[in-house]
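Hey, I'm writing a tutorial for new members on how sequence and structure tokens pair up, and I'd like a real worked example in the thread rather than a made-up one. If someone can provide the structure for the chain below, I'll link this post from the tutorial.
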Amino acid sequence: IKELILPQVQKSYLRI
């Protein structure tokens, strides 16, 4: 689980 992406995209990548 990576949450190092941008805050705007983090919402979508929060469950990566």
